[in-house]
Design a protein that fits this description.
252 residues; alpha+beta; Ribosomal Protein S8, Chain: A, domain 1; Alpha-Beta Plaits; Structural Genomics Hypothetical 15.5 Kd Protein In mrcA-pckA Intergenic Region, Chain A; 3 domains; six-stranded antiparallel β-sheet; 6 helices; 15 strands
C-alpha cells in the first residue's frame, strides 16, 4: 500500500473533524466529494462514534466520487439535503467528453471537490454537486465547449442514468498474481502489464500497487490507467494443466 502522505493526512483530519462536529452539535456534516482512494483511506482510519452514522454516497449507488456523510443516526435526513443533481440538456451532448463537462464547470470557479460524478446519457447529462453550488451552476452554466445547453435541478432519485457497460470475461490464468490476472482480463502482454504496474498506474481496491506479484482474490477491483476497471468474480480450478479458471467483469 502507498504510504500516507500529507494530503492523505489532511483529508483524514477533515473527516475526523466532521465526525466530532456531528457528535457535538447533532448536525449533518460532509467531506468531499472524495475519490475512491480517499474513501478507502478514510474507511480504514475513521472509527464511528456512538449514535453517529458514517456513510459514503455520491447521488446513486454506483457513484465513483462520494461524500462522506456524518450524521446523527436518528436525525431526519435525505441525500437530497446535501447533494443536488444538475440535469443538462442540449443538442450534441453525446459528442462531448467528461473533460469537456468538468472543464466548463471548473471554468466557473468551482473547485473539483464540489463536483461528484458526471454521467452522460442519451441526449442529456447529470452532474452530482454539493447543494450550495447548484443554483450558481444553473444560473451561470450556459455552454459546454461551444454547445449551448440548458441546466435544471432535480432530485438524486430522478436522474435517469444509463446502465454501465460491463463485459464478462472467462478464461484461465497461470496464477492469481496481479500481472497475470491483469494481462488476461485486459488482453495485453505480461510485459505491458509489468510496465503499467511499475509506473504506479495500477491499483487494487483503490490502493496503488507496484508489486507485479501481488495476490488477487475474488471480489478484488483492479483499476489501470487507460484500461479501466476490472472486478474479479469467481476463481476455480486448477485444471489438468495446473491453471486456474477465472471470471472477470470489465467495465467499459
Amino acid at each position: 500500500m502507498t504510504p500516507i502522505d500529507k494530503d492523505d493526512k489532511l483529508i483524514t483530519a477533515r473527516a475526523e473533524d466532521a465526525l466530532r462536529i456531528a457528535e457535538a452539535h447533532y448536525t449533518v456534516e460532509t467531506v468531499g466529494f472524495l475519490n475512491p482512494r480517499q474513501r478507502t483511506l478514510i474507511s480504514k482510519e475513521l472509527y464511528p462514534l456512538p449514535d453517529i452514522s458514517l456513510e459514503f454516497f455520491g447521488g446513486y449507488p454506483e457513484a465513483e466520487r462520494t461524500l462522506l456523510i456524518c450524521r446523527p443516526e436518528y436525525a431526519d435526513f435525505s441525500p437530497d439535503d446535501v447533494i443536488s443533481t444538475i440535469r443538462i440538456t442540449g443538442r450534441g451532448l453525446d459528442a462531448l467528453t467528461h473533460r469537456d463537462f468538468l472543464g466548463s464547470l471548473m471554468g466557473l470557479g468551482i473547485v473539483r471537490e464540489n463536483i461528484g460524478d458526471i454521467v452522460v446519457g442519451d441526449g442529456e447529462a447529470f452532474v452530482f454537486v454539493k447543494n450550495r453550488i447548484a443554483d450558481y451552476i444553473v444560473q451561470n452554466l450556459k455552454k459546454i465547449g461551444r454547445l449551448g445547453i440548458h441546466c435544471s435541478i432535480c432530485k438524486c432519485s430522478e436522474a435517469k442514468l444509463p446502465p454501465p457497460t460491463v463485459r464478462e470475461i472467462h478464461g484461465t490464468v497461470s496464477s492469481m498474481r496481479l500481472d497475470a490476472v491483469l494481462a488476461f482480463a485486459a488482453g495485453i502482454s505480461r510485459s505491458r502489464t509489468a510496465e503499467l504496474i511499475s509506473q504506479g498506474l495500477v491499483s487494487v481496491n483503490f490502493n496503488i500497487t507496484e508489486s507485479a506479484s501481488a495476490h488477487i482474490d475474488e471480489g478484488d477491483l483492479i483499476s489501470a490507467r487507460g484500461i479501466g476497471r476490472i472486478k474479479i468474480g469467481s476463481i476455480s480450478g486448477p485444471t489438468r494443466k495446473g491453471r486456474l479458471g477465472i471470471t472477470a467483469l470489465k467495465y467499459e
